[in-house]
Design a protein that fits this description.
Helix content is 39%, strand content 18%. The chain is of the alpha/beta class. The model has no long low-confidence stretch (mean pLDDT 93). It binds adenosine monophosphate.
């Protein structure tokens, strides 16, 4: 892991943000806060922070006495080694952003701290190849394109929740399938922790903010606006056009820009991500998409109803 510079620590110090790299230190601090009945909100991230992450911090801060943000690029949720290697790491800028947002605690563990070899991981405790049974929710959409991804997400969140033991966990709608997966996991393993979903924060042109956006080439960045434009137009056109036709139109519309390749675009029941054939089949409907620009894969979604 990259060392934090003197400047990064100085910024944190001046803004009175605690930076803990060790679980013990974090837990000692948090247990004192708990003793004085302070509520703890938790925002887990993989860093390369942007305003989308900061909106979660602001929400957590507004509802808790202590906001803990973690930055940990979790290797077990990357099915593609190259993607893990190229995942942006901007720790000094992240610390500055967190400190300016008046975040209280940054938890910055390394891999050994999260996955010490002495602690058997869930699937090493005799539970077979896969630890969590999500009833297939982890195998569709993102899970189909990224096998094992959600098992890794659930693994790291189970671990982080066990370490931080917050009152409330804040996740973004941007990763909607992840939100549903974590919700399922928490119903079983952490029923006492409240889960809040925060809305998607977008760039001025509508592109959903993402740590991956900085890896787009200039032309790709300009063309990427087609994703949100298409999703919002789908919402507008819903009810007037059949669901099947709107999906066909959406694929064509996104791929009308030269650098975009649609991985999937689906209109599903927002409760369980099950496919629907017509607009009356579910009360809450969501359109979800993943689009590739070269090797960069971007996801976005919009509630249709
Ligand atoms: P990540 O660092 O990508 O793992 O994201 C950490 C958290 O920030 C997750 O709960 C994401 O859903 C959330 N997030 C990422 N991008 C956005 C965004 N544009 N708006 C709101 N939340 C976001």
């Amino acid at each position: 892991m990259k060392k934090i510079s003197y400047k990064g620590l100085l910024v944190a110090y001046l803004c009175t943000m605690f930076v803990f790299k060790k679980i013990n230190d974090l837990q000692n601090y948090l247990s004192t806060q708990r003793k004085s009945e302070k509520k703890i909100g938790f925002v887990p991230t993989m860093g390369a922070l942007h305003q989308g992450h900061i909106s979660l911090i602001e929400k957590a801060k507004s509802e808790n006495a202590v906001c803990v943000c973690s930055i940990f690029v979790n290797p077990t949720q990357f099915n593609n080694k190259e993607d893990l290697k190229k995942y942006p790491r901007t720790i000094e800028k992240d610390i500055e952003m967190l400190a300016s947002a008046r975040n209280d605690v940054l938890f910055l563990p390394d891999e050994k701290e999260i996955y010490p070899s002495t602690t058997p991981l869930r699937w090493e405790r005799g539970l077979g190849g896969e630890a969590f049974d999500f009833g297939g929710l982890d195998k569709i959409l993102e899970g189909k394109s990224r096998p094992g991804h959600f098992q890794g997400v659930a693994q790291v969140l189970e671990r982080l929740l066990d370490i931080v033991r917050p009152h409330t966990l804040y996740l973004g709608q941007k990763d909607y399938q992840q939100f549903l997966i974590v919700k399922k996991m928490m119903e079983i393993f952490s029923p006492n922790i409240q889960l809040i979903m925060c809305p998607i924060i977008r760039e001025a042109d509508g592109l959903a903010m993402s740590s991956r956006n900085i890896r787009l080439l200039e032309t790709e960045r300009k063309e990427a606006v087609i994703i949100s434009q298409t999703l919002f137009e789908m919402k507008e056109k819903s009810k007037q056009i059949s669901l099947g036709n709107i999906k066909k139109w959406a694929v064509q519309n996104i791929q009308s820009v030269s650098s975009a390749k649609v991985d999937y675009i689906e209109i599903v029941n927002a409760e369980n991500l099950e496919p629907i054939e017509n607009w009356n089949e579910a009360k809450k409907i969501i359109a979800l998409t993943a689009v590739k620009f070269g090797t960069i894969r971007l996801i976005d979604n919009v509630f249709i109803s």
